[in-house]
Amino acid sequence: MDEILCTALETGALNMRYYEEDPDPILSANCMPFEPEEFGKITTKFSRLIIAKLLSSSTGIGLAAPQVGILKRAFAMKYPDSEKQESICLFNPVVTTNGDEWVYNEGCLSVPGVFNQVRRPKNAFVHYQNEDGEEKKLEMTMLTARIALHESDHLDGIMFFDRMSKQMRKATLRNWEKERRKLTKERKL
After folding, report:
1. CA distances (Å), 122 to each of 59, 70, 128, 151, 166, in order?
2. pTM for the whole structure
3. How many whole angstroms separate alpha carbon 138 and alpha carbon 152?
4. Are the C-beta atoms of 172 and 114 separated by less than 8 Å?
5. How many domains does the chain have?
6. Could you tell me the pLDDT band of residue 14, with boundaries at 50, 70 and 90?
């Protein structure tokens, strides 16, 4: 089991990872899948921890494992279009898309305070395992699909600004550098 994951499970704490350099060694890395022996007790506890971390954020609607320093294939997400559906943690997700694309302003908890336009498909199909290792699938549209696609990108080391033109990416990273200096000065990072 991953050392950082082991520590997080022991302490019950997950620490946010902010984009530090280009490319960031953790946030730009490919994640490893959860293994069959990790399902059950380990994934259940991790699911509770990452959902709690997501819910503690006033602005976040999704959070991937590498954003808390864990290079495993899992992410948690809220359902912003439905107050009835609880947040969910998806393990070893595989996302496929179809249909038209749309442009929408995206942000990221690892790059707080910075937003920019990203083009993504309107529809996504997600095959994943739940915390017990059972195979599941979800069909998502619009904002829910966007969340799954954004978080799934994190598992492959792709940041939202990597989906932008070179010019937009540069501008986004410049904005992040300004925001990061401000947040560091205010001691919020």
Report:
1. 22, 28, 19, 15, 23
2. 0.93
3. 14
4. yes
5. 1
6. confident
Amino acid at 62: G
pLDDT of 21 reads 82
- Which tokens go with 89? 């943690």
The answer to whether residue 10 is catalytic is: no
CATH of the domain at 156: 3.90.45.10
Rounded Cα distance, 147 and 151, in Å: 6
Whole-angstrom distance, CA of residue 43 vs CA of residue 41: 6
Task: With CA atoms as reference, report the closest residue to 159 among 27, 35, 7.
Answer: 27
Q: Would the pLDDT of 106 be above 70?
A: yes
Q: What is the pLDDT of residue 44?
A: 94
Phi, psi (degrees; rounded to nearest 5) at 34: -75, 135
> How far, in whole angstroms, is CA 123 from its chain's centroid?
18
Phi, psi of 170 (to 5 degrees): -60, -45
Cβ(64)–Cβ(72) under 8 Å? no
- The catalytic residue among 10, 38, 139, 151 is 151
pLDDT tens for residues 121-134? Answer: 999 999 999 999 99
Domain that includes residue 115, residue range: 3-185
